[in-house]
Design goal:
Structural class: mainly alpha
Number of strands: 0
């Protein structure tokens, strides 16, 4: 279980409600390019990209979808080929059998219940095979106003290190962040944490000495006598 820095935050860097806006503003200045890394041109391509992104990198997904989206343009296209062919086309994303089955099930339901269109509502998205809350949050947020906060491994790790949550469960972490982060930042906030987690707040060796929020972070190693968080992603 990850160490909780909530109590240490209150003692050393102050309450989370006082720190959250400075954290957001500093990260926004550091990462003006904070946006989704997946490449897509339509809600359908967005949905498929996010479904493929589980347990692999965005770079790898973009490499696969560059070819995939030239071949599969409509829900019908994913159902028109044998399952084994779709599996081959997405093989390098990993877990290709489960992903191919989920994609085909999703396309079938889109045609049956949504006129072949990707629904905009969270509840409808959660009906689709292979679409859990994280995927639905991404799709809703990228199409308009976010109704939740995406929690991936980077968001979980940084939210814990920053003392914004004491939980490990993504649903509970999201609930804590939704109470804390102003709604207008719900879409950009996870992108900021993801970029910071990839570039600075690394899982095993956080680069606290160059971190723009190290004085707001209870896990920072910069101050004498503090101990770095070593929370595996």
């Amino acid at each position: 279980m990850a160490r909780s820095y909530v109590a240490e935050a209150r003692r050393r860097v102050g309450p989370k409600r006082q720190r959250i806006l400075p954290i957001i503003e500093r990260l926004k200045r550091a990462y003006p390019d904070a946006t989704i890394a997946l490449r897509f041109r339509s809600p359908l391509e967005l949905l498929v990209s996010v479904m493929l992104s589980a347990q692999t990198t965005d770079v790898n997904v973009n490499r696969v979808t560059e070819r995939l989206f030239r071949k599969y343009r409509r829900p019908e296209d994913y159902l028109a080929v044998p399952l084994e062919e779709l599996e081959r086309d997405i093989h390098s994303t990993g877990f290709f059998r489960q992903k191919a089955k989920a994609i085909r099930g999703t396309m079938k339901l889109l045609l049956e219940d949504y006129d072949g269109e990707v629904p905009a509502r969270m509840d409808d998205l959660l009906r689709l095979p292979g679409v859990a809350r994280k995927t639905a949050n991404v799709v809703v947020g990228e199409r308009g106003e976010a109704v939740g906060i995406v929690v991936d491994t980077h968001v979980r790790r940084l939210a814990q290190r920053l003392g914004l949550t004491r939980h490990d469960d993504p649903v509970k972490i999201e609930r804590d962040l939704m109470r804390l982060v102003p709604r207008q930042y719900w879409n950009v906030f996870p992108h900021l944490l993801i970029l910071h987690g990839r570039r600075v707040c690394l899982a095993r060796s956080p680069r606290c000495e160059v971190c723009v929020v190290n004085d707001l972070c209870p896990a920072s190693r910069v101050e004498v006598g503090t101990v770095a968080a070593h929370v595996d992603a």
